[in-house]
Automatic annotation (TrEMBL):
Gene3D superfamilies, alphabetized: Ribonuclease H-like superfamily/Ribonuclease H
Pfam families given in the database record: HTH_32, rve_3
Domain of life of the native organism: Bacteria
InterPro entries reported for this sequence: Homeodomain-like_sf, Integrase_cat-core, RNaseH-like_sf, RNaseH_sf
PANTHER family linked: INTEGRASE PROTEIN (PTHR35004:SF7), TRANSPOSASE RV3428C-RELATED (PTHR35004)
Record protein name field: IS481 family transposase
Domain Integrase catalytic: 130-302
Length: 387
């Protein structure tokens, strides 16, 4: 016997009043009154339990919005992009839809689109570091990728540490020291020079470990370029890629996208990279910067900048021979320069002593043949003084 039937029988058979039934069974007098009058209208059908669910739900998410949530999930996943609740919520807001993140999650959950990941650490356990201002520090790294033809290529990127703004992203047959300086300069010409850089210890970035275990290699072109502009160079510890964690994490996001957009040539791959960079910077919300876009965070506050030093502390010795035209070739800041020593010294073995932008050419006996003030923007470097 159901609860409604007990209460109704107590009134109709026992003859108890509404108040007496309410006190005996610990219910409200209003409930007893409502059940009795329902029995008078419906008969024994009133004994059945009624659902407490409302007849209508004005705040229920419309079917169209639910379908859009699932469509966005499928579209972003197919494109190899992040398709979590926060990302979907941001896209919906951009389309003018008002919906909570929790509602998005419930819709995905009901449709079995949520993949549990219990192995993840809680985000509160992470210790985060980020530069205080845009251009305070740039991270750089390069990664390998294979075209659909089986040809291997390399992708280099420059990322602003503060805003996660992807400053530069290009594909190359092989990343060399020239690639590093060219891409760095291209990014700096567009966005301004940074106060510091953070990379691993690859030879294209630093020669600090070249030669011996203590590192006796001369500064490479990138190191020379940074010293001239007063840009602090930071390098992670060997075999500790987490130091450059932001750009390492970028490769994971990028490769997921590249798997969904196969390319057969470097040119096709570059088109995919350009599209990804635009989406990553201007449309994709980033959890680490309060779900804002990197482009918004990058322009929000004034940028940091380097201060050119009076003494970059560059020292170098080069051994060479004067060519028939009276010149000596010198690679400086990744550019091939030519020091004009003079035709009378053609064929002479020489030593070039370099300190910052000053170069002195001497012969093995110590006689000064010429002195030069190096201008990295000019290919030919005339002598400021001849011996």
């Amino acid at each position: 016997m159901s609860k409604p039937e007990v209460l109704i029988k107590a009134v109709t058979v026992q003859g108890l009043s509404y108040g007496e039934v309410a006190r005996r069974y610990g219910v409200s007098k209003t409930l007893v009154h409502r059940l009795h009058h329902r029995w008078l209208e419906e008969g024994d059908a009133a004994f059945q339990r009624r659902s407490s669910r409302p007849h209508s739900s004005p705040t229920r998410t419309s079917a169209a919005i639910q379908e859009r949530v699932l469509a966005l999930r499928d579209q972003l996943t197919a494109d190899g992009l992040d398709a979590g609740c926060d990302t979907i919520h941001t896209h919906l807001a951009g389309e003018g839809h008002t919906i909570g993140k929790a509602t998005v999650w419930r819709i995905l959950k009901r449709a079995d689109r949520i993949t549990p990941q219990p192995q993840k650490r809680p985000r509160s356990s992470y210790l985060r570091f980020a530069a205080d201002r845009p251009n305070q520090m740039w991270q750089s790294d390069f990664t390998h990728w294979t075209l659909t033809t089986g040809v291997g290529v390399e992708i280099i990127g420059w990322l602003d540490d503060h805003s996660r703004y992807l400053l530069h992203l290009t594909a190359h047959r092989r990343v060399s020291g020239r690639t590093v300086t060219d891409t760095f300069t291209a990014a700096a010409d567009e966005h301004g020079y940074p106060a510091s850089t953070l990379t691993d210890n690859g030879m294209v970035y630093t020669t600090r470990y070249a030669g011996t275990a203590t590192g006796t290699g001369n500064p490479n072109a990138f190191e020379t370029l940074l010293a001239l502009y007063g840009i602090a160079q930071k390098n992670g510890l060997p075999y500790k890629p987490t130091t450059q964690g932001k750009i390492e994490r970028l490769w994971q996001t990028l490769k997921k996208h590249l798997h969904a957009h196969p390319a057969a040539t470097v040119e096709e791959l570059q088109a995919v990279l350009d599209g990804f960079r635009d989406y990553y910077n201007t449309r994709r919300p980033h959890r680490a910067i309060s779900r804002r876009t990197p482009a918004f965070a990058y322009e929000l506050i004034p940028k940091a900048f380097p201060t050119a030093p009076d003494d970059p502390n560059l020292w170098r010795v080069r051994y060479d021979r004067v060519d028939p035209g009276g010149k000596v070739s010198l690679r400086y800041a990744n550019r091939m320069l030519h020091l004009g020593v003079g035709r009378p010294h053609a064929g002479t073995d020489i030593i070039v002593l370099i300190h910052n932008t000053e170069a002195t050419v001497i012969d093995p006996d110590g006689t000064v043949l010429s002195e030069h003030r190096i201008d990295p923007e000019r290919t030919y470097q005339p002598a400021t003084k001849n011996g």
